[in-house]
Amino acid sequence: MTLILNNHHSHPSFIYSNIHSKKFSFTTKLGVKYSCRRANRRLVFTPVNSASVNGYSLRNHDSSSEVSDGVGTDYGEDNAIGVSERLLRFVRLVSSVLPGGNWWRFSDEVEVSVTAKPVTLVRALRRMWGLIANDRWVIFAAFSALILTALTEISIPHFLTASIFSAQSGETAVFQGNVKLLMFLCITSGICSGLRGCWFGIANMILVKRMRETLYSILLLQDINFFDSESIGDLTSRLGSDCQQVSRVIGNDLNLILRNLLQATGALIYLLVLSWPLGLCTLAICSTLSLVMLKYGQYQKKAAKLTQEFTASANEVAQETFSLMRTVRVYGTEHKELERYTTWLEKLADISLRTSGAYGIWNFSFNTLYHSTQVLAVLVGGMSIMAGKITAEQLTKFILYSEWLIYSTWFVGDNLSNLMQSVGASEKVFQMMDLAPSQQFTSKGSKLPNLKGLIEFVNVSFSYTSRETVHVLKDISITVNPYEVVALVGLSGSGKSTIVNLLLRLYEPTSGQILIDGHPLNNMDIKWLRERIGYVGQEPRLFRMDVRSNIAYGCTRDVTEEDIEHAAKQAYAHDFISCLPEGYNTIVDDDLLSGGQKQRIAIARAVLRDPSILILDEATSALDAESEYNVKGVLRADGDKCKRTVIIIAHRLSTIQAADRIIVMDSGRIIEMGNHKQLLLKDGLYARLTRRQVDSV
Ligand SMILES: Nc1ncnc2c1ncn2[C@@H]1O[C@H](COP(=O)(O)OP(=O)(O)OP(=O)(O)O)[C@@H](O)[C@H]1O
């Protein structure tokens, strides 16, 4: 059956067939993916992608649309559902919950796209080995202790049984010998077990530290584009919980798996030697157990991946809410934020519910199989004793070792599923570890003997990678001469800050070239250049440390106390800093100072570097008129002639009237250029903006 729907409920038209399939999805020309499901003979369309960001609905209303498929009648039909239909639904529900049913599959709605390349256990182990190889002695010591523990522990049941039966048969010398051996084995296994735990713990600590160090250092060297596309919550989750989980592979999972594998192998050999028919029966049961375990392990791996994604999303929401707490409080959106967080918690709970169910089935399988081994051993072994084929001592040993075997198999399975979870969590971590550092850090650029501060933009165009179709700068050509003060003015969003971002080489131009003192910017040693640029952004952020350290942040030359105070005085910040409880030693952060005070500290930070190029992007927007008047001194620090090139962006036009040149921008283009008087005479956008500001005053 084929159906055509025309712009029903504002969804673009499409054609679909196979109306009887329970669920399908399609993508509209606008790139919006919809999932469609049948519900009570109705079709429900729900946008799959772009529907929400971090639990925030991007829709103004619930855009799920319902369309009757024509087979049924109206909504009231629900009540008229017959007994047979209800029965059928019940049967469907039960069958979906049974192993292999739909409920166990993570549906499209729950599933998130995991872009990382799948990591196999071997690849994960190889990566981990690479990280820990320098301390391989810890691993060797740990594995030696592990082997010794396994061998001593597996010998205990043999000597235990032998001691009991030698006592029963009155063989005193044999009994004493067995007991001495037993004591030796117990002490050795205890010591080795302690050492094993300790060494593996150390290996775990080394691994998690190296992983975090490596990942953090790689993330710090990424292009700014990367941080535009990745959320902070996601990145901190990778560094925190994911690294911790991945490190468990060596410190916990692998250690326990190997110990139990060794013990299981020993027990199996012993059983086969003791009685091969009975040994084979136990092996068959253990193989069944292993199959169940394998399935369960795969399920766990997938669940772990989803848990990881959803936890990261929940963290992201919490982080965003806490960092915007004042906005949340003022707008009274606490409940909305809670809902947003709960969206992810519910998804996590859903996964957890299913994995708990799967764990229940797994435990049930284990218990049944474990008890069947005992019943089988008693049945077959009892008959063998009656037939005089084996002794009671042999049967006791058999039961003890078969128990050992099945428990070891269970432990292997349990830890294997943990291992799968850890491997699942490692995919994104290793994917991020594979990211190449930004080219800026890998290529060695040239340094100039000194920087005069000549800046040239030659036919520069630019689009942000996240919005490639939007041309933010269009064919910009500007020359800023050394020691010149140039102001950038224009309507909001016209591209002023983007020019500065390109000058700081936070982004690369899409076309055109930027030259500094006649040298292409991308051929220069960017670290060297940035050390010579002072930059104050629109909303300066402070680190949680004392005022002195905040001012000296990133300054590579040796600075004295006097230098810091001098910079603070130039930025008109000294007076308020002196009034703080501990002056320059006062711990500040983003929330403990006013906007204007933060701006003045940021200006002092830029001035302290004594930069050849100073960039002020709305750096005085939060200052009162008097402070702003005084701060303007930093532009003309050495008398009339400024000793540095200055680029200043300001909406408050009084700030930039004294600039040597004013560049007016509109929609990514330069539309006017000149000094204040020339631009007023031109009577263009600048004159209009000036009039508006005068009017509003
Ligand atoms: N990181 C980014 N990713 C994508 N688009 C961006 C990014 N930063 C800015 N833009 C877009 O680029 C355009 C120019 O932004 P820009 O910040 O340069 O404007 P502006 O003139 O400095 O504005 P304002 O005066 O409000 O600071 C805007 O449309 C903005 O939405």
From TrEMBL:
Membrane-spanning intervals of the chain: 137-161, 181-202, 268-294
Species of provenance: Lactuca saligna (Willowleaf lettuce)
Location in or out of the cell: Mitochondrion inner membrane
Record GO cellular component, one term: mitochondrial inner membrane
Lineage of the organism: Eukaryota, Viridiplantae, Streptophyta, Embryophyta, Tracheophyta
CDD domains with a match to the protein in the record: ABC_6TM_TAP
Protein name: ATP-binding cassette transporter
Membrane-related topology note: Multi-pass membrane protein
Gene Ontology MF terms in the entry: ABC-type oligopeptide transporter activity; ATP binding; ATP hydrolysis activity
Entry keywords, A to Z: ATP-binding, Membrane, Nucleotide-binding, Transmembrane, Transmembrane helix, Transport
Domain ABC transmembrane type-1: 140-421
Chief localisation class: mitochondrion
Family matches, as Pfam families: ABC_membrane, ABC_tran
Gene3D superfamilies referenced in this protein's UniProt entry, alphabetically: ABC transporter type 1, transmembrane domain (1.20.1560.10), P-loop containing nucleotide triphosphate hydrolases (3.40.50.300)
Domain ABC transporter: 455-692
